[in-house]
Structures are given as structure tokens and as C-alpha cells.
């Protein structure tokens, strides 16, 4: 088991209900768990399927079980399946050293749909994220996922991107073995493709 | 084949707290499991149902928590081990029987798992269940992490059999729904034989009839059992201490708060100055053990979620032992060191500790925090709770709202607990004005319906879901009919217990383990009781609205069943009835006069107001093609097209 850059290593996966946040956090956690790390995942449930913000906290440690809630300001990586959710998470868990990966495709809050609030332009989101973090990766995961035939695959593309960054000891082989236990056979190859697309998005 | 029975002894795996509880029950050789769905408890029965066949279990979704406890108790009376999981509100429902059960005692190991929801993350209250253990006088265990969730559940069965009474295990959302690493134990091979023995002497706990009477005898016996529990708890490995021999402050905690305390001590660098006593056995407290740790420090901080349960118990022990251990200074909820309401987290515990110990703690760099919060405040619009795209409830409440507007007598909706509780929000056009417990909508509507003599002339509508109908609406319907309360009950029948994940209920032709089961027909039940029953499709907006208006004109008890399957149900997901299109030549945008009715009022997340084109647009990623929005556009700009078949 490789030592982690920081122990515990704190990952936040954020998005909107229905984007496959919970599944993505499980897949990522299982990839690390099978290597012998202690994992804790804290999830927000409940209203999550009804358009609310959702997030999972992942704590990875070589030594012990940590709280399912990450302390304020202590995230190491933020993976956002929806762009403004990345900004929302930074307000509570961000710091100058954090790495942010975000999907670029917005899911508009009802207040925006109803014309009561504005949704920021992508370049404003990008500049804000760059100002508030050490490294930012914007990934058009939903568009890539739609090319693969299903927008839900954007969550796996984002996990692939985390793998590509090399900050955590996760490789394609780990992913393949975990999804082998998670998905039916017919979905394995498309998920593997999604993971690889994500990896390549950050390697360039 | 499920991972519950695949995994071998000694392996470390990642389990959700509820899954760890399931594994603990399986390692204890549980035979029977019964419950009613409720977040955050539902995964316990769900996962047990998946292995029912392989592990020779009887698993059921009962109609409510009281009945589930009765089913589990029957197994115990017949000598088997049984588990009964429920959320905190369910313990209220079960408490009537629970009080009798605690008096009668049990035979086979019987474990009640209460999954509380501090912070009400997915509940309409954060009421907690621990005080039931004290009030009903049964032992209480509180796992402090995922490993303990498994190990304590397993041990709870042994404890129950040792004292011949029910044992309560209390989890919280951040344990039940969080996941962590768990080392697995052994799964037993045994299969039990059930037999209820009642021919023995009247007071024989193993062979006589079962009752809480004579009360004086049984209540006394119950207290003797609790004395034994105290002895066992004194030696329990679930009570642990970490920290210096002579701490400046002793923190006493339990449950998931253990992890928050550990993290807070770590953040503040106080591990060498502060002791942490983690109690897994929180009622009755083991007096000698607690005394020995209280003696170590003059200052005591108690960290727990929701009510000051542990704090009160520890203070009583400290008062009793003051002559020996001296006077202590207590910190906790009552002095404001720990918030009285809401769930805790490492930061809240760190804030309390930092004040008591005089150690400053800054979680975030001030300038960064200000900048990040300003960015979030201005750029990240809030996400209000909403019905899902394609949700039949949006359509139902649209029609209810329209009907009440047309009726013009200040009518209102009495709601209860389900996805449709969102009927109180803009998502449901703010139709629901009262929402309490399961089934309370109709009970309240009954009451309002009898206030005519006092001048009340506002019509009331009660709404409930199909699962809730069986859980707690039936007695209220009997009452409404017998008392001749003028009311309209609208059953929002989406064919499943949607809010908690589509667990089957008696209205469906399937049971918890996926076998065919007799279906109880809601419409026929209501008719047989004497109500007038009408069934409509809520996606037919105009017919539904007209029906509601007609029913509001009639006296007596009327039942309208609005039947349309939940958009998230496995049968429905991914299948669209229609492909929706906007006819841009017909959408007049700002010129229309509708003032963006479709996006501003109807608020389906599948519709977008496109500021560029100044017209409505369908979000093809989100729209599920229910077709309802086509009927709300005054200009007919939203079009249904037959979907391309695959």
C-alpha cells in the first residue's frame, strides 16, 4: 500500500440529485479500499433525488477510520459533476492548495429556470475556480457521455479524470475490477471507455 | 449472489453503516426481519431481503412499525432471533407495543434498530429515540463506527437472550448512510426451529404464556434484568478510553460523535491533554466505569446529538458519587458548548473544545473564506427542493391548486409524510398548508370537517401516498366515515414507497423478497368502508381538476385516487411517453402574456427559459417525456411527439 500525499486524504464529490454521485463515490472508494486503505464515505441523501445539491465526502487513510464529515477548509480534491456546485463546495471546504475537477455542463436550479436567479457564464466560473484553488480542470464530461450514448456516464468520466491526475493510486485496472462487481456485463465496456476518456482529458 | 454471504471471515470490506448492521445480524444467525421503510433505516430490511433465501430468513415489509415489531416479537416468542429496524419516528409508532413487550420479556434474541436522523437530513423532525430506552426501561447500545455497527448488532442478540428482553441499537444518519471499513466475522450455519411454548407454569419465562401482567412482578423482574445489564456493561469492550492518565478535560461521547471528537482533538492538537471516553452502552450507564473516568478530571464535556440524554445520565451519576469523586464542572448542551439542535460535525466539536481549553482554532484562512463565500453567494444560486421531472405529484398538485383557486372558499390541503410533503413548497404550488405525521393529513381533515358548527366553511383536502394509506390512513378513514366528516382524501398512488426506494407495500402484487403476494385494492377497501371512490390519471390535468371541483361540492367522505407510476420507479425509468418539442413560432416569450408560466410557475426542471432566444426550451438531458407541460402552455407551443421506439 503506497503512502498517501496526505493522511487522511480528503475528496469531495459534488453534484445534483440524479447525476450518479453516490455510485461514483462508491466506485472510487472501492478502488482504494481493495488496495488496503481505510475508507470512510459520508453522503447526503434524502432530498437528493429531487434536484437538490448532493455531495459525498471520501476520506482515505492508511491508518484508521475518519469522520464521515470532512472538517471545514480541509478538502484535497473537489470533483464536481456540475459547475456551480464546485464553487458552493469551495466556500466551506476549499483552501489555496485544493485541486478542482469540474464537469462543464450546468444543471439549472429551478430558481434559474423560473427567472429568479442568474446562472454564471462558464468563463466566470472558470476564473472563480482558478482564483480559489491551486489547479482547475474543466471537463466536458456530459457532452462526452452523450457521445457514448448516456449522459449518466459523465460521473465515470470524472472519476477517470481523477485517475489521470495521478494524485491517488488508482489505475484503469482497479477500475475494471471494481466495475466488474458493480455493473452488468453489457455495461462494462462503455464504462471502461468513459473512464479512459476522463483519464485522457487531464493527461493532455 | 450477494456480497453479504460471499465475503469470508477476516476480510476487510467497505460497508455502509446499515450494511454493517445487516452483516452483524447475519453473523448472529438472525431468522426473522420485519420493518417499515423510513430513511435512514430502509437498507437494513432491503439487504436482508436480498439474502433471505440463501440464509433461510423470513423478511417482510410490514404495514407499519408497530406491526413489524409485533411480527419480530412473535419470532422471539417462538425461540428465534429477530431484528426490527425503523427510523426514529417509527419508534413512536411502535412504542405502544414496545412498552408491553418490555414488560413481558422475550425469548429468542430480539433487537430493535432505531436509525435516528440528527439534523433532519431526510425527516420532518429530528426527534430521537434514545429516551425510549430509558422510558421503556430496556438496554441501549450506540455504535461509534462501522465496525461497531456490525459487532454491536451481533452482540445485541446475545445480550437480549441473556436478559430475556428486547435490546435497542441506535444508529444515526451519518453512520447508517455513511460507509467505512469493516472486518467481517463468521457466518453461522445453523437453522432454527420455531415453537411457541405456553403450557408451562404461568410465570415461567420460557414455557408459560407471554404477558406483561401481573405488572408488579414483571416490572420488578425488568429492573432485575437491568441490574444484570449494568454488570455486563461495566465490562463491555464497546466502552473505550483514549488519552492521558490525568486529562485536563474528559470528553464523554457516543455514536458517530466519537469520530467527530477524535477529529476535533486531532485538529486542535489536544490529544495529550484531553481524554476521550467513548461509551457504546449508553443506557443504563455502567456506574463504576463512568465513576472511574469522572474521577480523572475536574472538567467534563459531553458530546452527543439531539437531546442531552447522555449528559443528563452522567450528571445524575456524578451527583450520586460527588462525595467520592468531588464536584465536577460540566460542559455540553446545557451550557451552550455544544449546540442544542441539529447534527454535529468535527468543526462544531472543535469550536466547543477550543473555547473550553482556550486553544484558538481557525478552520479556514479568513481572507480565503471571505472570498470563497462571496463567490458562492453571488455565483451559486440555491437549489430549492423540487419534484423530479415527470413526477406525477407535480401534475396532481397543479390540478389541486387550480381546483382550490376555482372553488374560491379558502380551501387547503392537509398533507403528511412522503415525497408529496414538497406540496408545501413552490414545487407543489404551496397547496399543502399542514404537514405532520404519517396519516395525520386525513385525521386533521376529519377534525376540520367537523368544525362547521363553529362557522368553518373552508373545504379541506387530505393527501396521502399509497404506502402511507396502509401505514396510518386506514384508521383515520374509518373515523372520517363514521363521524361523517365532510372531506376529500386524495391518494397520490404512484405504485410504491417512492421516497425510500420503491419498497413494495400491500397494494402491490409482490412482497419484500420478490415473490407474488395478494394485492390489497385501495379503491375496493375505501368503497367497502363506505367512501365514494373515483380514480383518475393525474397526467390528465383538466379531467383531474374538474373531478376535484365536483367532489368538493359533495358532502360526506370522498376518495380520489390519482394513479400514475413514479418517474423514478424501475419500471418507468428511461422510458419516455413522449418526446417533447417547443414550437418556436408559437412560443411568444415575453410577448405572450403568460409571463413564462411553464418555467416560472410550473417549474419542471426539464424546461428551461432561454434568455438568448427569449423562448422556452426543453432540456433533453433532464426531460423524461411525461408530456404534462404540453397542457399548461396557453399558446400550445409545447408539443408532444411519439418517441422513437428503440
Written description of the protein model:
Chain A is an alpha/beta fold and 204 residues long. Chain A is built from eight helices and six strands. In chain A, strand 4, helix 2 and strand 5 form a beta-alpha-beta unit. Chain A is globular and about 50 Å long. The mean pLDDT of chain A is 93. Chain B is α/β, with parallel strands linked by helices and 646 residues long. In chain B, 36% of the residues lie in helices and 17% in strands. Chain B contains 21 helices and 24 strands. In chain B, strand 2, helix 3 (43-50) and strand 3 form a beta-alpha-beta unit. The chains are: A alpha/beta (204), B alpha/beta (646). At the A-B interface, helix 1, strand 2, helix 2, helix 3 and helix 4 of A face strand 1, helix 8, strand 8, helix 10 and helix 14 of B.
List keywords for this structure.
heterodimer; A: 204 residues; alpha/beta; six-stranded mixed sheet; 8 helices; B: 646 residues; 21 helices; globular
Topology:
The complex is a heterodimer of chains A (204) and B (646).
Chain A: E1 9-16, H1 21-33, E2 38-43, E3 53-61, E4 77-80, H2 83-93, E5 99-103, H3 110-113, H4 122-132, E6 135-139, H5 141-147, H6 154-165, H7 172-182, H8 188-203
Chain B: H1 3-6, E1 12-16, H2 17-27, E2 32-35, H3 43-50, E3 58-61, H4 65-77, E4 82-87, H5 88-104, E5 110-116, H6 130-136, E6 140-141, H7 146-163, E7 167-172, H8 173-176, E8 179-183, H9 215-234, E9 240-242, E10 249-253, H10 257-268, E11 274-278, E12 281-283, H11 287-294, E13 299-303, H12 309-320, H13 322-325, E14 329-331, H14 346-357, H15 366-379, H16 392-407, E15 412-415, E16 432-435, H17 440-449, E17 460-465, H18 466-482, E18 487-493, H19 522-529, E19 532-536, H20 541-552, E20 557-563, E21 579-582, H21 597-602, E22 607-610, E23 615-618, E24 638-641
Parallel strand pairs in B: 2-3, 2-4, 4-5, 5-7, 6-7, 10-11, 10-13, 13-14, 15-16, 15-17, 17-18, 18-20, 19-20
Antiparallel strand pairs in B: 1-8, 6-12, 9-11, 21-24, 22-23
Helix pairs in contact in B: 2-3, 2-7, 4-5, 10-14, 16-20, 17-18
Amino acid at each position: 500500500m503506497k503512502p498517501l500525499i496526505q493522511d487522511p486524504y480528503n475528496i469531495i464529490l459534488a453534484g445534483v440529485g440524479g447525476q450518479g454521485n453516490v455510485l461514483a463515490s462508491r466506485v472510487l472508494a472501492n478502488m482504494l479500499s481493495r488496495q488496503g486503505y481505510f475508507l470512510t464515505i459520508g453522503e447526503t441523501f434524502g432530498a437528493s433525488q429531487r434536484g437538490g445539491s448532493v455531495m459525498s465526502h471520501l476520506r482515505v487513510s492508511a491508518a484508521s477510520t475518519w469522520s464521515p464529515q470532512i472538517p471545514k477548509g480541509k478538502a484535497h480534491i473537489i470533483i464536481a459533476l456540475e459547475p456551480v456546485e464546485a464553487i458552493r463546495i469551495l466556500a466551506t471546504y476549499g483552501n489555496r492548495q485544493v485541486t478542482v475537477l469540474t464537469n462543464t455542463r450546468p444543471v439549472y436550479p429551478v430558481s434559474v429556470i423560473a427567472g429568479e436567479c442568474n446562472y454564471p457564464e462558464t468563463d466566470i466560473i472558470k476564473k472563480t475556480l482558478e482564483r480559489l484553488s491551486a489547479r482547475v480542470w474543466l471537463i466536458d464530461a456530459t457532452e462526452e457521455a452523450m457521445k457514448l450514448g448516456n449522459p449518466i456516464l459523465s460521473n465515470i468520466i470524472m472519476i477517470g479524470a481523477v485517475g489521470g491526475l495521478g494524485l491517488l493510486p488508482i489505475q484503469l485496472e482497479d477500475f475494471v475490477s471494481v466495475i466488474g462487481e458493480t455493473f452488468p456485463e453489457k455495461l462494462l465496456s462503455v464504462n471502461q471507455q468513459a473512464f479512459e476518456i476522463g483519464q485522457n482529458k487531464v493527461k493532455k | 449472489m450477494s456480497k453479504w454471504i460471499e465475503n469470508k471471515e477476516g476480510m476487510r470490506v467497505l460497508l455502509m453503516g446499515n450494511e454493517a448492521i445487516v452483516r452483524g445480524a447475519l453473523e448472529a444467525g438472525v431468522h426473522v426481519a420485519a420493518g417499515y421503510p423510513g430513511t435512514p433505516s430502509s437498507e437494513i430490511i432491503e439487504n436482508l431481503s436480498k439474502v433471505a433465501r440463501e440464509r433461510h430468513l423470513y423478511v417482510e415489509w410490514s404495514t407499519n412499525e408497530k406491526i413489524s415489531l409485533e411480527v419480530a416479537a412473535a419470532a422471539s416468542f417462538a425461540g428465534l432471533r429477530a431484528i426490527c429496524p425503523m427510523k426514529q419516528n417509527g419508534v413512536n409508532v411502535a412504542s405502544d407495543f414496545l412498552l408491553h413487550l418490555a414488560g413481558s420479556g422475550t425469548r429468542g434474541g430480539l433487537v430493535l434498530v432505531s436509525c435516528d436522523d440528527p439534523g433532519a437530513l431526510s425527516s420532518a423532525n429530528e426527534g430521537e429515540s434514545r429516551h425510549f430506552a430509558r422510558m421503556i426501561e430496556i438496554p441501549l447500545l450506540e455504535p461509534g463506527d462501522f465496525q461497531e455497527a456490525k459487532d454491536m448488532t451481533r452482540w445485541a442478540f446475545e445480550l437480549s437472550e441473556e436478559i430475556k428482553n428486547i435490546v435497542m441499537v441506535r444508529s444515526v444518519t451519518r453512520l447508517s448512510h455513511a460507509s467505512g471499513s469493516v472486518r467481517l466475522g463468521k457466518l453461522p450455519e445453523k437453522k432454527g426451529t420455531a415453537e411457541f411454548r405456553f403450557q408451562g407454569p404461568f410465570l415461567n419465562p420460557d414455557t408459560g404464556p407471554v404477558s406483561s401482567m401481573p405488572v408488579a412482578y414483571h416490572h420488578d423482574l425488568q429492573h432485575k434484568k437491568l441490574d444484570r445489564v449494568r454488570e455486563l456493561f461495566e465490562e463491555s469492550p464497546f466502552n473505550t478510553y483514549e488519552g492521558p492518565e490525568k486529562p485536563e478535560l474528559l470528553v464523554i461521547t457516543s455514536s458517530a460523535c466519537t469520530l467527530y471528537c477524535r477529529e476535533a482533538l486531532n485538529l486542535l492538537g489536544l490529544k495529550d491533554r484531553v481524554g476521550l471516553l467513548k461509551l457504546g452502552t449508553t443506557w443504563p450507564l455502567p456506574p463504576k466505569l463512568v465513576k472511574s473516568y469522572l474521577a480523572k478530571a475536574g472538567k467534563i464535556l459531553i458530546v452527543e446529538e439531539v437531546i442531552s440524554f447522555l449528559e443528563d445520565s452522567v450528571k445524575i451519576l456524578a451527583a450520586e458519587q460527588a462525595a467520592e469523586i468531588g464536584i465536577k464542572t460540566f460542559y455540553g448542551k446545557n451550557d451552550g458548548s455544544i449546540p442544542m439542535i441539529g447534527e454535529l460535525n468535527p468543526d462544531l466539536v472543535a469550536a466547543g473544545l477550543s473555547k473550553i481549553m482556550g486553544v484558538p482554532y481557525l478552520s479556514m484562512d479568513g481572507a480565503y473564506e471571505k472570498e470563497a463565500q462571496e463567490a458562492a453567494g453571488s455565483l451559486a444560486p440555491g437549489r430549492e427542493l423540487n419534484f423530479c421531472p415527470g413526477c406525477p405529484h407535480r401534475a396532481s398538485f397543479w390540478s389541486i391548486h387550480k381546483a382550490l383557486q376555482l372553488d374560491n372558499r379558502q380551501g387547503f390541503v392537509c398533507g403528511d409524510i412522503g415525497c408529496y410533503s414538497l406540496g408545501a413548497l413552490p414545487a407543489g404550488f404551496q397547496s399543502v398548508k399542514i404537514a405532520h405525521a404519517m396519516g395525520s393529513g386525513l385525521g386533521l381533515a376529519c377534525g376540520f370537517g367537523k368544525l362547521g358548527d363553529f362557522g368553518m366553511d373552508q373545504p379541506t383536502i387530505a393527501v396521502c401516498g399509497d404506502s402511507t394509506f396502509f401505514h396510518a390512513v386506514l384508521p383515520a378513514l374509518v373515523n372520517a366515515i363514521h363521524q361523517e366528516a365532510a372531506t376529500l382524501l386524495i391518494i397520490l398512488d404512484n405504485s410504491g414507497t417512492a421516497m425510500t426506494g420503491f419498497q413494495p407495500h400491500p397494494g402491490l402484487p409482490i412482497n419484500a423478497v420478490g415473490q407474488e403476494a395478494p394485492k390489497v385494492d385501495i379503491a375496493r377497501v375505501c368503497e367497502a368502508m363506505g367512501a365514494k371512490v373515483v380514480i383518475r390519471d393525474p397526467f390528465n390535468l383538466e379531467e383531474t381538476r374538474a373531478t376535484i371541483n365536483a367532489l368538493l361540492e359533495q358532502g360526506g367522505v370522498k376518495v380520489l385516487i390519482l394513479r400514475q407510476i413514479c418517474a423514478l420507479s424501475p419500471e418507468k425509468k428511461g422510458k419516455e411517453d413522449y418526446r417533447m418539442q417547443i414550437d418556436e413560432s408559437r412560443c411568444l416569450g415575453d410577448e405572450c402574456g403568460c409571463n413564462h408560466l411553464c418555467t416560472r410557475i410550473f417549474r419542471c426542471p426539464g424546461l428551461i427559459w432561454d434568455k438568448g432566444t427569449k423562448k422556452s426550451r426543453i432540456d433533453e438531458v433532464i426531460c423524461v417525456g411525461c408530456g404534462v407541460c404540453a397542457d399548461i402552455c396557453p399558446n400550445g407551443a409545447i408539443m408532444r411527439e411519439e418517441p422513437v421506439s428503440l
